[in-house]
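Notes from hallway chat w/ T.B., transcribed later so I don't forget. T.B. wanted the structure written out for a chain they're using in a teaching module, and asked if we could keep both sequence and structure tokens in one place. Agreed to drop them here.
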Amino acid sequence: MKASPMVWTGRVLSALFVLFMLGASVAPKFLMPDANLDYIRSLNIDPADVPLIGVIELIGTLLYAWRRTSLLGAVIMSALLGGAIATHMHVDSPLFSHTLFGVYLGLIMWAGLWLRDAQVRAVVPLLPSMRQS
């Protein structure tokens, strides 16, 4: 069965989210732990907690990437992104570039899942033509 343009758009958004998380968030936590120490401390995060945050990010991202567990991964990642938003609010980070970045990532993540998964679209019918009478 051939995938529709909507499904392909969802796959692309999901792939971009996964690649960003793995490359820009998870990998630095494991491969360059000392590079961000000053930034981590400026967020009032104990540097000893960074590997655990990286593991949670990795697990959530991998669960999101795998079709059977993508909804669970999206929920885990939503919680993680919510924590990031709260952390940035706590330290008065710039609103649009830092604090709301978790919102931007979350929107891309959920849009990708909604577009690529018919079951999610059935539960959350955002388009009027998808509502059942």
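Follow-up for T.B.: The chain has seven helices and no strands. Might be a good example for the class.
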